Amino acid sequence: MTPPSMADAVAAVEHACRGDRPAQRAEPERRPRAMEASGAAREVAALLDIAFLSQRLAVPDQTPYAVLAVTGHAGPGTAHAVFAMADTVVPFEAELSWTGVLAEAYPDVGRLFLVCADLGRAPGPWAGAAYPESLVGAGALAHSLRLAASHPWPGARIHIGSHTAVTSAVRRRYPGMRHLVTVSAGPLDGSST
User: Fold this and answer.
1) Helix and strand totals (H; E) in the chain
2) Which has the closest alpha carbon to 152: 71, 85, 62?
3) Which residue has the higher pLDDT, 63 or 165?
4) Fewest C-beta atoms under 10 Å: which of 8, 53, 90, 118?
5) Which of 62, 30, 71, 53 lies closest to 133, judged by CA?
6) What distance in Å separates the CA atoms of residue 177 and residue 50, rounded to the nearest whole number?
7) What Cα–Cα distance (Å) separates residue 16 from each residue in 40, 81, 91, 163, 187?
8) pLDDT tens per residue, range 87-132
9) How far apart are CA 172 and CA 165, in angstroms?
10) DSSP character for 2?
11) 62-72 pLDDT, tens per residue?
12) pLDDT of amino acid 189
């Protein structure tokens, strides 16, 4: 079975969050990306595609990087999250244990892209060398995300430092992953400025 595209996965998360139950298909039909998802989901999927491609070209190491994309973490309503790797996007449960930490840290931001790396699978001569090398790769991915996000959402920023609550949530499903860097984009109200 072919894995779903990023836009298909983001659209599925949107449907699930609204309570919609789209018909299950054994094999997703391929169609132009513009038709795969609506508005914000399509923008986020395109942004992740661009960022991963740019990061792979800039830092061709073999460390598995991932991005936990979060919207709705602050303000009324429910947070929505997807976990994206270079070729896969899957829904991710937005638990209050870590979205509450993000709401406190980034109260006025509409979208967060939490860059993670699997330090256990990072190449390196010894385990201690993986962390600094992974920070470089995570920084390259964060920079690519910031540049891609600046077009639809001016004022995107990179925030250094990690959140233990996010790392714990990610490791429950992806052992070895660690949150390293955050990119924030767009105001809380969802507007482009």
Assistant:
1) 5, 6
2) 71
3) 165
4) 53
5) 62
6) 22
7) 15, 11, 9, 27, 24
8) 778 888 888 888 888 888 888 888 899 999 888 777 665 556 677 7
9) 11
10) P
11) 678 889 888 87
12) 58
Predicted TM-score (pTM) of the model is 0.72
Q: Per this entry, what is the length of the chain? A: 193
Residue recorded with tokens 């470089």: 136
Contact (Cβ atoms closer than 8 angstroms) between residue 6 and residue 69 = no
User: N- to C-terminal Cα distance for the chain?
Assistant: 40
Place of tokens 């709401």: 103
Asked if residue 147 lies in contact with residue 105, where contact means CB atoms within 8 angstroms, the answer is no
**Strands ordered across the beta sheet of 177-187:** 88-91, 80-85, 65-71, 109-118, 177-187, 157-160
The full DSSP string for 135-190 is HHHHHHHHHHHHHHHHTTSTT-EEEES--HHHHHHHHHHSTTEEEEEEEEEEETT-
Residue 19 DSSP symbol: T
Q: Which run of H or E residues covers position 91?
A: strand 88-91
Q: What tokens were used for 173?
A: 């499903």
